[in-house]
Amino acid sequence: MTNFLAVERALRTAAPYDLLPAARAALAEHYGAVQVELLLADYSTKVLQSVADGRTEPRQVPIKGSPQGRAFDSRERVQVVGHQECVDLYVPVTAHGDRLGILSVRLPVRPAEEKVAPQVLDEITAIADIVGHEILVAERDTDVYLQARRASRLTLAAEVQWHLLPGRACARKEYEIGAQLEPAYAIYGDNFDWAETASTLTLSITNGMGEGIQAALLTSLAVNALRNARRAGIGIADQAALADQALFAQYRGEEYVATLLLSFDLDTGRVQVVDGGSPQLWRHRDRTVEHIEFDAQMPLGMFEETDYVTQDFRVVPGDRLIFVSDGVFAALSDKGETFGEKMLARAIQAARLLPAAAVPRAILQDLSAYLDQGAGPEVADDALVLCLDWFGRDVRS
């Protein structure tokens, strides 16, 4: 059994709460690692926090300005020579394109080399991917990794919302998605969801009215109603109609959810859309940033038995789609001025070179700076940004 397979087996058979000790022991035995640390990104993606293991005190590493943060943002492994006859290797921990954190491994090297062998680098990188997938499975049975993501306490509403999400990023050969909610520790009404098949991607952006736990419960019902309808195999217009009925039955039109529903054909780039409220879609194509508007229909749950119809548009390889809630484009500064279309277009343009997963944080930082609230993405109202980079599919292949 090779070193890599031995470590993989140790991780696959470890208890859910015991991934880090298992990784530490296996990497020490098979690769000579002298130190192993698992750092997970917090909900606001400002810091990386170490997973508690009972041996050392948990610590925080800022994402901005640190080699660990550079590896996290770039999704590329980083080698740092900082110790005599040892090298620190920072490897992104991901799962299907969702950046979870960093696996930090200190490996011995010969004094004359000061580098880790390429094969070892590749194997440690693959091990970090296994760690990422095992974390997602382990979270079903333990709170260890969820606790490591908290730089402060979540509100109950935020707890509900974060557990509704499919993740914060997703990468496929046809597209990449990155998304973020703010304020991360007190979000309540905004949400996003996605699901793919071999030929389609379904995407929903939701914005429940109200505040606090009531808004979170409203959005939770809407998201689960949409999922229930989607899993029945029906189109997005009927998905919207069934979710609308579920919400109206519960709230009788007194509360409702603004929703943007999209279904992408992965072969052709054809997109069907149901626009039921306030979330906006912006497109960055070539050097042009523009707001894509659709015929507005009723938010989900406002009236009984609303009929929804789809509209069409098309994406082409190279398109970047940005989805934002009203907490972004309608945000008010201390002077009473909205962030608005001009500032939003400028923020989208400024993030043009970033990967999809990093775009939401960049736009939210621009929003925060505009609102005179400091450097980090801390906003007063719910703010959602989702970025989708479209690569398309060559049907001939």
Spans with pLDDT under 50 lasting ≥5 residues?
none
Class by alpha and beta content: alpha+beta
Percent helix among the residues? 25-40%
Distance between the termini: 37 Å
Shape: globular
Domain PPM-type phosphatase: 172-390
Organism: Streptomyces tabacisoli
EC number: 3.1.3.16
GO molecular function, one term: protein serine/threonine phosphatase activity
Q: How are the SSEs placed, and which strands pair?
A:
Blueprint lengths: L2 H11 L5 H13 L3 E7 L5 E4 L9 E3 L4 H8 L3 E6 L2 E10 L2 E11 L9 H21 L5 H5 L7 H9 L4 E3 L3 E8 L7 E7 L3 E9 L3 H19 L5 H16 L5 E9 L4 E7 L3 E6 L2 E5 L18 E4 L5 E5 L1 H4 L10 H11 L8 H12 L12 E8 L7
Please provide a written account of the structure.
- With 397 residues, the chain is α+β, with helices and mostly antiparallel strands.
- The chain has 11 helices and 17 strands.
- Strands 3-2-1-6-5-4 form a 6-stranded antiparallel beta sheet.
- A hairpin with a 5-residue loop joins strand 1 and strand 2 (47-50).
- The mean pLDDT is 92.
- Its EC number is 3.1.3.16.
- This is PP2C family protein-serine/threonine phosphatase.
Descriptive labels:
PPM-type-like_dom_sf; 6-stranded antiparallel beta sheet; 11 helices; PP2C family protein-serine/threonine phosphatase; EC 3.1.3.16; protein serine/threonine phosphatase activity; hydrolase; alpha+beta
Task: Provide a short characterization of the protein structure.
With 397 residues, this protein is α+β, with helices and mostly antiparallel strands. The chain has helices at residues 3-13, 19-31, 67-74, 118-138, 144-148, 156-164, 212-230, 236-251, 326-329, 340-350, 359-370; strands spanning 35-41, 47-50, 60-62, 78-83, 86-95, 98-108, 169-171, 175-182, 190-196, 200-208, 257-265, 270-276, 280-285, 288-292, 311-314, 320-324, 383-390.
